Amino acid sequence: MQIFLQGLIAEGIAKIFGISFIFAIFAVDYLIYHIMFGPKTCSDKIITLGSRYKDYRRAIGVSQQDVHRRTGVALSTISLFENGRGQGLSLVHFYLLMEALDLEVDVAALIPEAHKSDLAKMWEQQNKGRKR
After folding, report:
1. What's the CATH fold of domain 42-110?
2. What is the pTM of this model?
3. For residue 15, what are the CA distances in angstroms to 3, 5, 6, 24, 52?
4. Where in the chain is CATH 1.10.260.40?
5. Which end of the chain is more exposed for a tag (fewer CB within 10 A), N or C?
Protein backbone atom coordinates (compact mmCIF):
# COMPACT_ATOMS: atom_id res chain seq x y z
CA MET A 1 0.00 0.00 0.00
CA GLN A 2 2.79 2.45 0.92
CA ILE A 3 4.63 1.81 -2.37
CA PHE A 4 1.39 2.39 -4.31
CA LEU A 5 0.81 5.70 -2.52
CA GLN A 6 4.42 6.75 -3.08
CA GLY A 7 3.94 6.05 -6.79
CA LEU A 8 0.78 8.14 -6.95
CA ILE A 9 2.40 11.03 -5.09
CA ALA A 10 5.52 10.83 -7.25
CA GLU A 11 3.42 10.76 -10.43
CA GLY A 12 1.62 13.92 -9.34
CA ILE A 13 4.86 15.66 -8.39
CA ALA A 14 6.44 14.69 -11.73
CA LYS A 15 3.50 16.19 -13.64
CA ILE A 16 3.29 19.35 -11.55
CA PHE A 17 7.01 20.14 -11.59
CA GLY A 18 7.82 18.65 -15.00
CA ILE A 19 10.46 16.28 -13.66
CA SER A 20 11.09 12.62 -14.37
CA PHE A 21 9.06 10.02 -12.50
CA ILE A 22 12.25 8.35 -11.21
CA PHE A 23 13.52 11.63 -9.75
CA ALA A 24 10.11 12.24 -8.17
CA ILE A 25 10.17 8.74 -6.59
CA PHE A 26 13.56 9.51 -5.01
CA ALA A 27 12.28 12.87 -3.76
CA VAL A 28 9.15 11.33 -2.23
CA ASP A 29 11.19 8.54 -0.64
CA TYR A 30 13.61 11.10 0.84
CA LEU A 31 10.76 13.21 2.24
CA ILE A 32 8.96 10.22 3.75
CA TYR A 33 12.16 9.04 5.41
CA HIS A 34 12.82 12.48 6.92
CA ILE A 35 9.23 12.97 8.03
CA MET A 36 9.14 9.56 9.68
CA PHE A 37 12.63 9.47 11.12
CA GLY A 38 14.00 13.02 10.98
CA PRO A 39 17.22 13.92 12.72
CA LYS A 40 17.44 11.89 15.93
CA THR A 41 20.93 12.19 17.32
CA CYS A 42 22.63 15.40 18.33
CA SER A 43 25.02 14.92 15.43
CA ASP A 44 22.10 14.55 12.98
CA LYS A 45 20.53 17.73 14.29
CA ILE A 46 23.77 19.68 13.87
CA ILE A 47 24.15 18.35 10.32
CA THR A 48 20.56 19.41 9.54
CA LEU A 49 21.14 22.82 11.10
CA GLY A 50 24.29 23.39 9.02
CA SER A 51 22.55 22.30 5.84
CA ARG A 52 19.60 24.60 6.47
CA TYR A 53 21.99 27.45 7.24
CA LYS A 54 23.78 26.93 3.92
CA ASP A 55 20.47 26.76 1.99
CA TYR A 56 19.23 29.94 3.68
CA ARG A 57 22.54 31.79 3.13
CA ARG A 58 22.49 30.92 -0.56
CA ALA A 59 18.80 31.81 -0.92
CA ILE A 60 19.43 35.35 0.34
CA GLY A 61 22.52 35.74 -1.84
CA VAL A 62 25.19 35.84 0.85
CA SER A 63 28.53 34.12 0.25
CA GLN A 64 30.67 32.36 2.82
CA GLN A 65 33.20 35.16 2.27
CA ASP A 66 30.49 37.71 3.20
CA VAL A 67 29.74 35.76 6.40
CA HIS A 68 33.47 35.65 7.18
CA ARG A 69 33.80 39.41 6.69
CA ARG A 70 30.78 40.11 8.92
CA THR A 71 31.82 37.77 11.74
CA GLY A 72 35.54 37.09 11.62
CA VAL A 73 34.74 33.36 11.75
CA ALA A 74 37.22 31.39 9.65
CA LEU A 75 36.03 30.25 6.22
CA SER A 76 37.00 26.69 7.12
CA THR A 77 34.76 26.82 10.21
CA ILE A 78 31.83 28.10 8.15
CA SER A 79 32.39 25.40 5.54
CA LEU A 80 32.66 22.63 8.14
CA PHE A 81 29.42 23.76 9.78
CA GLU A 82 27.53 23.98 6.49
CA ASN A 83 28.78 20.60 5.28
CA GLY A 84 27.87 18.55 8.31
CA ARG A 85 31.20 18.49 10.07
CA GLY A 86 30.59 21.32 12.52
CA GLN A 87 30.06 19.31 15.68
CA GLY A 88 32.85 21.28 17.36
CA LEU A 89 31.36 24.69 16.52
CA SER A 90 31.48 26.94 19.57
CA LEU A 91 28.35 28.62 20.84
CA VAL A 92 29.97 32.02 20.23
CA HIS A 93 30.64 31.15 16.58
CA PHE A 94 27.10 29.79 16.23
CA TYR A 95 25.62 33.07 17.46
CA LEU A 96 27.93 35.07 15.17
CA LEU A 97 26.89 32.97 12.16
CA MET A 98 23.21 33.51 12.97
CA GLU A 99 23.72 37.26 13.39
CA ALA A 100 25.56 37.44 10.05
CA LEU A 101 22.31 36.43 8.32
CA ASP A 102 20.08 38.46 10.66
CA LEU A 103 18.70 35.27 12.21
CA GLU A 104 17.61 35.47 15.81
CA VAL A 105 18.27 32.66 18.27
CA ASP A 106 15.40 32.63 20.77
CA VAL A 107 17.01 31.44 23.99
CA ALA A 108 13.64 31.39 25.77
CA ALA A 109 12.32 28.92 23.19
CA LEU A 110 15.39 26.72 23.54
CA ILE A 111 15.46 26.68 27.33
CA PRO A 112 12.35 27.92 29.10
CA GLU A 113 12.79 29.93 32.25
CA ALA A 114 12.23 27.75 35.30
CA HIS A 115 10.98 29.01 38.61
CA LYS A 116 12.25 27.50 41.86
CA SER A 117 8.84 26.02 42.66
CA ASP A 118 8.71 24.35 39.23
CA LEU A 119 12.20 22.93 39.70
CA ALA A 120 11.28 21.54 43.12
CA LYS A 121 8.20 19.81 41.67
CA MET A 122 10.24 18.35 38.80
CA TRP A 123 12.88 17.12 41.24
CA GLU A 124 10.25 15.46 43.42
CA GLN A 125 8.62 13.72 40.45
CA GLN A 126 11.94 12.51 39.04
CA ASN A 127 13.03 11.12 42.39
CA LYS A 128 9.67 9.70 43.52
CA GLY A 129 10.16 6.17 44.82
CA ARG A 130 13.95 6.39 44.96
CA LYS A 131 15.64 5.28 48.14
CA ARG A 132 18.09 7.70 49.63
Report:
1. 434 Repressor (Amino-terminal Domain) (1.10.260)
2. 0.57
3. 18, 16, 14, 9, 27
4. 42-110
5. C
